[in-house]
Amino acid sequence: MNDARLEHEALNEALQAVENWVVTEDETAIARDFKFADFREAFAFMSECALAAERLDHHPDWSNSYNRVGVSLSTHDAGGVSTRDIALAGIMDEAARRFGL
Ligand SMILES: C[C@H](O)[C@H](O)[C@H]1CNC2=NC(N)=NC(=O)C2=N1
């Protein structure tokens, strides 16, 4: 998989595949806030995504408060967003859909 930073145009094109994610002002990360029914579901989602992240060797910056999970994805080595972030975002979206989001 290509680790290069996606620049403005390529980034916007790639984001069409993960339309619930927003780009930060400086275009160095993509973010999404997930809201689940309760803490149990939020944490189950995080457990599932943590295993997927390990498999990809690509890890989210995230936080959890009760039923909310805030996620920021970026490729540190590339100094921005790469296709690895888009791929992980897609996997997280798919996991969230299984929780009815
Ligand atoms: C050595 C290892 O592959 C790197 O440190 C990986 C690990 N996980 C990572 N995760 C994320 N989100 N960005 C990275 O640049 C990154 N680098």
TrEMBL record:
Similarity section: Belongs to the pterin-4-alpha-carbinolamine dehydratase family.
InterPro entries the UniProt entry points to: PCD_sf, Pterin_deHydtase
Domain of life: Bacteria
E.C. numbers: 4.2.1.96
GO biological process: tetrahydrobiopterin biosynthetic process
Catalytic activities: (4aS,6R)-4a-hydroxy-L-erythro-5,6,7,8-tetrahydrobiopterin = (6R)-L-erythro-6,7-dihydrobiopterin + H2O
Swiss-Prot/TrEMBL keywords: Lyase
PANTHER family tied to this protein: PTERIN-4-ALPHA-CARBINOLAMINE DEHYDRATASE (PTHR12599)
Organism: Martelella endophytica
Protein's recorded name: Putative pterin-4-alpha-carbinolamine dehydratase
NCBIfam families referenced in this protein's UniProt entry, alphabetically: PRK00823.1-3
GO MF annotation list: 4-alpha-hydroxytetrahydrobiopterin dehydratase activity
